[in-house]
Design goal:
By secondary structure, the protein is mainly beta. It has one helix and eight strands; from the N terminus they run ββββββββα. The protein has one helix at 90-97; strands at 2-6, 15-20, 27-28, 33-38, 43-47, 52-57, 64-65, 70-75.
């Protein structure tokens, strides 16, 4: 089920979208940059608050957006979970250290 990702408070009344850093279908992690914005005082990348798969992008380069603007839709159910990594048994690791 998709969730809405909104622009957090960036410390400015409004900012212009300068770059879209994700595409529909991208699997992203928490804190992955989503968009770049530029306001009167600074430019910054806006990170994702959740992991998931981008299903829709609701802003475009050049849009003027403000806190609370819907940026994109993120589907949490489409998160790809990778295979667990193979681990060396502790008993073997201890033996090798002796």
């Amino acid at each position: 089920m998709p969730i809405e990702i909104h622009l957090p408070d960036i410390g400015a009344d409004s900012a212009d979208v300068t770059e879209i850093l994700v595409n529909v279908g991208d699997a992203i992690e928490v804190d992955s940059p989503l968009i770049s914005v530029e306001g009167d005082k600074a430019a910054m990348e806006v990170p994702s608050p959740n992991a998931g798969t981008v299903t829709e992008i609701k802003v475009a380069v050049g849009d003027s957006i403000s806190t609370g603007t819907l940026v994109l839709m993120l589907d949490l159910s489409l998160i790809h979970i990778s295979e667990p990594t193979r681990r060396t048994p502790i008993s073997y690791a201890v033996f090798c250290l002796k």
